[in-house]
Design goal:
about 55 residues; mainly alpha; about 65% helix
C-alpha cells in the first residue's frame, strides 16, 4: 500500500470505503447552495446499476 493510501485512511475494503466517502460527501453537500437531493439519489442509483452498493 502506498504512503498516500495509508495516510488517507483507505480501508482494506474499497466498497466499505466508497460507502463512507459517498455519505460523507453527501452530508457536506447537504448545506451547500444548490443542493438537490434528487441528483444525489440519482447518482446513488447509477452507482448501484454499476454494481456498487452504496
Amino acid at each position: 500500500m502506498s504512503e498516500i493510501a495509508r495516510s488517507a485512511g483507505v480501508a482494506a475494503d474499497p466498497t466499505q470505503e466508497a460507502h463512507r466517502l459517498f455519505h460523507r460527501l453527501w452530508s457536506k453537500a447537504y448545506d451547500a447552495p444548490g443542493y438537490d437531493k434528487r441528483e444525489w439519489l440519482r447518482f446513488e442509483e447509477l452507482l448501484r446499476q454499476l454494481g456498487l452498493r452504496i
